[in-house]
Specification:
Shape: globular
Number of domains: 1
CATH topology: Rossmann fold
Distance between the termini: 46 Å
Largest sheet: 8 strands, mixed
Number of strands: 8
Strand content: 5-15%
CATH class: Alpha Beta
CATH architecture: 3-Layer(aba) Sandwich
CATH superfamily: NAD(P)-binding Rossmann-like Domain
Number of helices: 10
Low-confidence stretches: none
Length: 301
């Protein structure tokens, strides 16, 4: 299979269903060899099977592509190392890591338990760290050995991480952290030939169907804006050699829409040039708020 990613080797975590499955199929169709990583867990991260990842591999191979399954846990540092070794042993190289694996434990903040909080941050934030850490160690060694590196880290943030979402405090915190992590990775890793970007995809998945059922419902006819396959072409391009000049970006994607996020930028400012008295500050903040451009609302408000 020839295409924009011919010869490239890609790891997609959480690739057994939804967006991850769409990415794996699209990368394979574009010529990449794919490591399909998935634990086969429930939406709440419970249970485990190997059949979920293998089914996607079978689909890729049946279409003439190259893929292998991996069932390691992205949050386990040794397991993440095995994910990377799977790519190197099966295909001889690694070019792209798509950090997609995740789950939700939706709860209003007042009802959130510490165990639920830790579980969500672990799979999203720690999962992104563990897999990328092993991949970066490999790419850095390749660079230092004088071999050309043109590598990609593609992280998964969310609209919840960029603007917050009612009932998803842990998920929003984790996804906001991933957006910031991406900026740091881009700044630090470019010297080794590695780019880092993040996605905030809106599409129909097990997670979004549970949280936003009406918004995610497929239309009776016409363009299905929430079809997860809509996101895959952009991810494939971002994993290709054509995107090497793009790094440190967060892209908000939905249907046929591509939005480059502005991130945190300075807003209205007042500088007194001296220390403020507490009684002076109220009117100043009111003025700054009045001058601030309208902000996106928290999801669910």
């Amino acid at each position: 299979m020839a295409g924009i990613c011919t010869g490239r080797v890609v790891i997609v975590t959480g690739a057994g269903r939804g967006l991850g499955r769409g990415y794996a199929l699209a990368f394979a169709a574009a010529g990449a060899s794919v490591v399909v990583n998935d634990l086969g867990t429930t939406l709440a991260g419970e249970g485990r099977d190997t059949a979920t990842a293998q089914a996607v591999v079978d689909e890729i191979v049946a279409a003439g592509g190259r893929a292998v399954a991996n069932g390691d846990d992205v949050t386990d540092l040794d397991g993440a190392g095995r994910i990377v070794r799977t790519a190197l042993e099966a295909f001889g190289r690694l070019d792209v890591v798509v950090n997609n694996a995740g789950f939700v434990r939706d709860r209003m903040f007042v009802s959130q338990t510490a165990e639920e909080w830790d579980a969500v941050l672990r799979v999203h934030l720690r999962g992104h760290f563990c897999v990328s850490s092993h991949a970066v160690a490999h790419w850095r060694a390749e660079n230092k050995a004088g071999r050309a590196v043109d590598a990609r880290i593609i992280n998964t943030s969310s609209g919840a991480g960029l603007q917050g979402s009612i009932g998803q405090s842990a998920y929003s915190a984790a996804k906001g952290g991933i957006a910031s992590l991406t900026l740091v990775q881009a700044a630090e890793l470019g010297r080794y030939g590695i780019t880092a970007n993040a996605l905030a995809p809106a599409a129909r998945t097990r997670m979004t169907e549970a949280a936003f059922a009406d918004r995610m419902r497929a239309p009776a006819s016409g363009f299905d804006r929430q079809d997860p396959a809509n996101i895959a072409p952009f991810v494939v391009w971002l994993g290709s050699a054509e995107s090497r000049a793009v790094t440190g970006c967060v892209f908000d994607l939905e249907g046929g829409r591509i939005t480059l996020c502005n991130g945190w930028n300075d807003g209205p400012t007042v500088d007194k040039g001296a220390r403020w008295a507490p009684a002076e500050i109220g009117p100043v903040v009111a003025r700054l708020l009045a001058e601030r451009p309208p902000q996106k609302k928290v999801w669910g408000t």
